[in-house]
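In response to reviewer comment 3 from the previous cycle, which asked for concrete evidence that the modeling workflow produces usable outputs, we include below a single protein chain processed end to end. The sequence was submitted unchanged, and the resulting structure tokens are shown without manual editing.
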Amino acid sequence: MFPSDTIYSFFLIAQMSTSVTANSLLFMIYIYTFLIQPQLKKPIDWIFMHLTMANILNIIFHSMPEVMSSFGVKRFLDNIGCQIFLYIYRVTRGLSICTTSLLSVFQAITISPSHSKWARLKFKLSTWIFPSFLFFWVINMLIYIQVIRVMGAKLNFNMVGQGYVNAYCQSKKMNMRYPGPFVSSMVIRDLLFVALMIMSSLYMVGLLYSHHRRAQHIHSSSLSSQTSPENRATHTILLLVFCFVFFYFLHNLLTLFVLCRTEKNTRLESISGFLSTCYPTLCPFFLMKNNKMIPKLLCFLSNMKMTFPWRAFSG
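The workflow returned the following structure tokens.
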């Protein structure tokens, strides 16, 4: 294994372990809130919870084959394994796009002024969450049925080939029927939800800017310096959207560049795969920023450390 391969393997393992741990911790915090402290739960928490679940599945089913390959494991996936891993990875990646878009739209409607045309939708938001989740699952599972039909295990590990290729799997070009509708459905879905994401984010930026301008006319520092929970949540969601859009376009540009090349470049493909998992890795840390349970958890761990100091276990 070359030094560059060792470094890449280290980053893969660090990224996967960090992402799975952070998303799992956040997911358990939401479960704890819903079961133990239901008075603290908000409708938007269901969207956060759905996003963290999609992130966990996405990072596991994308990174696990790469990690196993970096350790030199042969035949980790057969035909069925390739179909399952790539299908779940693609579906959860689509769920991440759709859920982030829903999150942005949800918050934009939530903070809209009472005189806005969107104000009348506020009371219906909570009833749309679960139907939206069902729609996201159905549409993404239908889009990627083609993946099950065309993916298979690599028979020759020295073969580079054309089409989609990773450490263990490769697309079967001879069985690839009707690629136009398959690609078109993915492009239309991405354009639709990314456009909704960007438009709702721009709307929220406009609302926050107007609020800031109004606050400047208030001379009381106690009023102008305070930030409402809604504004803090809006800032977090805007940061999430910016992070998603940045890595989304960066990943897609690099993927297009790789596809346009006549020869395969495994280094660029590895970088592209790494970029595709940056958003689910960073996402939980943004969400933890304004979660009220995080300071309580840190305080609890600090008290545990004081109660059971490490020297007590040193013998």
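The first helix runs from residue 3 to 36. We consider this sufficient to address the reviewer's concern, and the full set will be provided in the supplementary archive.
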